[in-house]
Structure formats: C-alpha cells, structure tokens
Amino acid sequence: MKSLINKSVAGIVTENINTASIFKKYKIDFSFHGNMLLSKVCEENNIKPEIILEELKSVSVNQFYLKDYNSWELDFLIDFLINIHHEYEEENVLLLKECSKKAVKIHGKQIKELIEINKLIQDISDEMLEHMKNEETVLFPYIKKLIEAKNKNKKIKIIHSPLNEPIDALEDDHNKVGKTFKRISFLTNNYKVPENACNTLKVLYVKLQQFEEELKKHIHLENNILFPKAKKLERTFYNLQ
User: Could you tell me which residues come within 8 angstroms of residue 34 by beta carbon, excluding any fewer than 6 positions away?
Assistant: First the structure.
C-alpha cells in the first residue's frame, strides 16, 4: 500500500474506481490534473500521507463490472461516454442556462455572485456542446476505426491523427471547464443554498453540484483512460506504415 504514495492520483482511481470517494472527501482532483503524485498532493494539501493511505487501504478492491471502466473495451467506453455522459450534459447544460438566467432576474440584486455565475454558465455552455460534437464526429469515429482495423488485422494509414494536437486542444477544453466549475463552486460556497431561497435558486445550486460531479467522472474517463489507451492503440500501427 505504501507504493501508492508514489503513484499518480489518476492512476490510483483508474486501477480502483472505489478510491474516488476518498479523494472526493479530501477535495483532491483526480480528473483534470490527476497526473500529480499522491505524495505531492498530500504535501500541497497538508494531508498526512499515513492517514489517506490507511483510508485508501480500507476501500474495497472489488469492483462491479459497470464501474470497472479500466477493463472495458474502448468501443464500449466510447458508447458509454456518448449515451450516458454526453446525453446528460447536453440536456442539463441547457437547464442550467435557463435556471441561472432566471435566478439572476429574481435574486441578482441581493446575491451579486449570481451575475458572475450566470455569465460563466452562459459562456461555457456553447463551448461544451461544440466540444462534445467534435468528439462525436471526429475523435470517437477515428478511435473506432483503429479498433476495427486491429480486430480485422488490417493496415491503416495514420495521417493528421486527431490523437495529437487536436486531443491536446480537447484536454485544454477540459481544463477550462474544470476551472469554470471550480470558480462556480467558490462563488456558491460549495453549493450551499442561501436561506429563504426560492425553488429556482434551490434547483440551480443542486443541479450545479450534480453537474460538476458528473463532469469530473466524464473527464476522468477521457483524460485518464480513453485518451491514453487510444494513443497506445494508434502506436501499434506505426510499424505497419
């Protein structure tokens, strides 16, 4: 277990998704900047390594297949991302746009933070929708093409691969949306609903918190599992050019 201290946070969660609850408890990011070693994370967050190691040790290593994302075939993982995470975010980002705009009209004068929250949501929502569209029309079909070629033992020409600079741009998008929701979390005092809040404001805060949690899972699956495995798969074709 001590060896975990020299592993990346993302690597620990990828090997055992059950550890995510421990990192969430300590507000440790494993999605957007998960490459940081646990030892460094403990140092920066003033956490005693022996305490978190003991908690990680207590987490069950038994994983249900539907949560053992690292064992899934890439094409299945892609379908899961599209049908579960993309569909959820496409639907709920529109709801957040509506709720935040309405909340500003009702409470904007009393709760000044809502003005910035609304602007952040309005600004990021269209970018998120465009980001997911790019993944579904360019990146994901390319990865599935690699998978098909491997399964059929076929050669494939790798020209202008979206797994190089375009994927770097996608990861930059992930970082941007991560920073946006970190700011929103700060402005809402970690989504603490103000006293005497109307139903619109209550719904907004609850939905924002749920959205951020789902977003972190989504980004973890792409940054730490899908993208690295897709790059590794692509490299197997280099010698076949």
Answer: 8, 9, 10, 11, 13, 220, 223, 224
Alpha-carbon gap, residue 134 to 129, rounded angstroms: 9
8 forms beta bridges with 37
Looking at the structure, do residues 108 and 20 belong to the same domain, yes or no?
no
Question: How many angstroms separate the most distant Cα atoms in the chain?
Answer: 66
What is the reported pTM?
A: 0.85
Helix (H, G, I), strand (E, B) or coil at 231: helix
Tally of domains within the chain: 2
Distance CA 45, CA 32 (A): 16
From CA 96, how far away is CA 203, in angstroms rounded?
A: 9
Helix, coil or strand: residue 195: coil
Backbone angles phi, psi at 8, to 5 degrees: -75, 150
Helix (H) or strand (E) holding 86: none
Label residue 182 by pLDDT band (50, 70, 90). very high
Residue among 7, 78, 208 at smallest CA distance from 216 = 208
Do 86 and 44 lie in one domain? The reply is no
One domain for residues 211 and 105:
yes
Amino acid at 190: N
Residue 145, pLDDT score: 93
Integer distance in angstroms from the first to the last C-alpha of the chain?
A: 43
Which tokens go with 103? 């909340």
Residue 236 has pLDDT above 70, yes or no: yes
Distances (CA, A) of 114 to 87, 110, 203, 213: 26, 9, 14, 20
Domain of residue 206: give its range.
72-240
